[in-house]
Amino acid sequence: MTKKYFKEQTIKELKALKKNATKAEIGRLYFTNLNPWGTKSCIYGQMTGHCRSGRAKKLISLCCNELMNTIGGIVKSNRVDGSTKDGPASLYSFLESHIMNHEEDNHKIFGWLKGETKTFPTK
User: Fold this and answer.
1) Which of 2, 29, 63, 86 is a good FRET partner for 18, with 20 to 30 A between their CA atoms?
2) Whole-number Å distance between alpha carbons of 53 and 51
3) Residues 6+ apart with CB under 8 A from 13
4) To 10 degrees, the CA torsion angle through 34, 3, 67, 41?
5) Of the candidates 109, 102, 103, 105, which has an alpha carbon nearest to the alpha carbon of residue 44?
6) Model confidence over 1-33: pLDDT tens digits?
7) Model-level pTM?
8) pLDDT digits (tens, 9 = 90+) for 74-99
9) Rounded to an integer, what distance in angstroms lies between the CA atom of residue 43 and that of residue 51?
């Protein structure tokens, strides 16, 4: 996977998330509570209560078509919960991976989603 493709997919997901999340869901985002690896404190967890909730799975499926494994490989899967025929797996959306690996953008991502800034958070 190229850096360009990763960036394009992250931007696509971020824009789709702003479009598909409710005002209430976006209002639940608090940068100071962000823990990208926590099921309740990651970006989808904060918005929906748990990143594997039905609503989180719906948002993820609306916002991205591919998931990534923990080593950055793309997994084309229609199983949003990250499960495989062999059981659960750790899969992340492009935005989740960006948040984990580019902490310098996280405050800007939350601010843009919440409408606190009009400047798009990733370059």
Assistant:
1) 2
2) 6
3) 63, 64, 93, 94, 95
4) 0
5) 109
6) 788 988 999 999 999 999 999 999 999 999 999
7) 0.84
8) 655 444 554 444 444 577 888 998 89
9) 8
